[in-house]
Amino acid sequence: MERDTYKYHLKQGRKVVHKGITDDLDRREIEHQRNYPGARIQQVGRRTSRTAALKWEREGGKRSYRK
User: Fold this and answer.
1) Which whole-number Å values give the CA distances from 63 to 8, 33, 34, 35, 37, in the listed order?
2) For residue 64, what pLDDT band results from cuts at 50, 70 and 90?
3) What residue spans define the domains of the chain?
4) CA 6, CA 58: separation in Å to the nearest integer?
């Protein structure tokens, strides 16, 4: 599978205000700034397949940690 999808947390300060997936982090950050001025996207993990990213999103978008 192609790894073309990013998982991200949208943060205002230290608070996560949205969790999602996208294929373009910069574009998505600009879109979010309409509703969350000054918010920044923080990438979670590495790029992944669309299928795996959708599963992560459905499960609540929790941060993935490597052991």
Assistant:
1) 9, 22, 25, 23, 23
2) low
3) 5-58
4) 14
What is the CB neighbour count within 10 angstroms for residue 31?
Answer: 12
- Neighbouring C-beta atoms of residue 40, cutoff 10 Å: 14
Chain segment 5-37, per-residue pLDDT in tens: 999 999 999 999 999 999 999 999 999 999 999
Tell me the whole-structure pTM to 2 decimals: 0.86
- Lookup result for tokens 């993990």: 45
Cα gap 55→60, rounded to integer Å:
9
pLDDT at 63 over 90: no
| Cβ-based neighbour number of residue 36 at 10 Å | 15
